Amino acid sequence: MFESTTVTGRVFTDETGIHYEVPVLLTPEGPVDILIDYLIDHWDGRSPQWMVKVTASVRLFLEYLEAHSTYLDEQAIFQNFRQRLLTGSVNAATGSDDSGLWWKAQGPENTRRILTNLTDFFGWWAKRNPGK
C-alpha cells in the first residue's frame, strides 16, 4: 500500500525569508520535490484549490503505480489508471480488490479533471527534462 500524506508546507526559494505555502506530498522517501517545483512554478497563476487537486491527482497516480508495479508499458499504465478511475478498483462480482486500492468510481467529470491535472504536470516535467 502506498504510504503518503499531504501537508501544507512553507517553501523558501532564497534568503529573503519570503515563502510559498503549497501542499506537499510526503512519502516515506520524503517530499515529492518535482511536484513542489511544479506548484511553485504555477503559484502566481493558480488557486490554492487547484494546487490541492493537482497534489491529490499525483497521489492517486502514485498509489496506482505502486499497486501495479509490474506494469512495463507506460501507455497501458495510464489507460488502465483512467479505467480504474472511471470504474473503481473493486470487482463487482466478488467484492474483492486484488490491487488493494479499494477505489470507488470517480465518474467522468472527476476522472477528466484528474487526467488533465496529470497530463499538464507530465507535460511540464517533459519540457524541463527533454529526452527523459
Description:
With 132 residues, this protein is α+β, with helices and mostly antiparallel strands. It is 49% helix and 14% strand. It has four helices and three strands, in the order E-E-E-H-H-H-H. Helix 2 crosses helix 4 (107-128). The longest helix is centred in the last third of the chain and has 22 residues, at 107-128. It is elongated. The protein starts with a strand and ends with a helix.
Distance between the termini: 27 Å
The percent of residues in helical segments reads 40-55%
Biggest beta-sheet profile? 3 strands, antiparallel
Number of strands: 3
Overall average pLDDT: 94
Topology order in helix (H) and strand (E) letters: EEEHHHH
Computed CA radius of gyration, to the nearest angstrom: 16 Å
Helices and strands in order:
Blueprint: E1 5-12, E2 19-27, E3 30-31, H1 33-41, H2 48-67, H3 74-87, H4 107-128
Antiparallel strand pairs: 1-2, 2-3
Compact summary:
This protein has 132 residues and is an alpha+beta fold. It has helices at residues 33-41, 48-67, 74-87, 107-128; strands at residues 5-12, 19-27, 30-31.
What descriptive keywords fit this protein?
4 helices, alpha+beta, 3-stranded antiparallel beta sheet, 132 residues
